[in-house]
Design goal:
Blueprint: H1 3-31, H2 38-47, H3 49-54, H4 56-81, H5 92-112, H6 124-149
């Protein structure tokens, strides 16, 4: 396995895991119970909610696959564009936070193309919390490992 692919794969596994753990913890705090259908809801982006919830374990595994595929895709994208866009070498923490905002906004646009229902009324505080969470748990680790891989200080 090439060093590039190994770095991208391990980074995407890390950020995918921290992201899903954050989602589980957030939902537990909000509802007071374990969100046992989390991966089914992720699969609902492709299947629709009724089919995903009735799909049981198979739909949950599909949701798990989608989750890590998305994490891998965003990680790979950053690793590929990094050497081509010189402004990305400015500051790994700031760039990581901004990449988290980019990921949030891209996912919001992607979700509009799916049968998944919209997130409800506009909530500015919720958007900022998502940006910070995804920036810290997703964007910064991707930027950090990309800087390390390309030996950028």
């Amino acid at each position: 396995m090439s060093k590039f692919f190994k770095t991208v794969l391990l980074t995407s596994l890390f950020v995918g895991t921290t992201d899903i753990l954050s989602a589980f913890i957030s939902m537990y705090i909000k509802s007071g119970k374990f969100p046992d259908k989390m991966f089914n809801y992720i699969a609902a982006g492709a299947l629709g909610i009724p089919a995903a919830l009735k799909g049981g374990t198979a739909a949950a595994f599909l949701g798990l696959f989608f989750h890590y595929f998305i994490a891998f895709s965003f990680t790979l994208f950053f690793f590929l564009v990094f050497p081509r866009l010189k402004f990305l070498t400015f500051n790994k923490y700031l760039i990581g936070m901004l990449y988290g905002v980019f990921v949030c906004q891209a996912m919001a646009l992607i979700l509009k193309l799916t049968p998944f229902p919209s997130g409800g009324p506009f909530n500015l505080a919720g958007i900022f919390i998502s940006w910070i969470t995804v920036g810290v748990l997703f964007g910064i680790p991707i930027a950090y490992n990309t800087y390390k891989y390309y030996a950028v200080e």
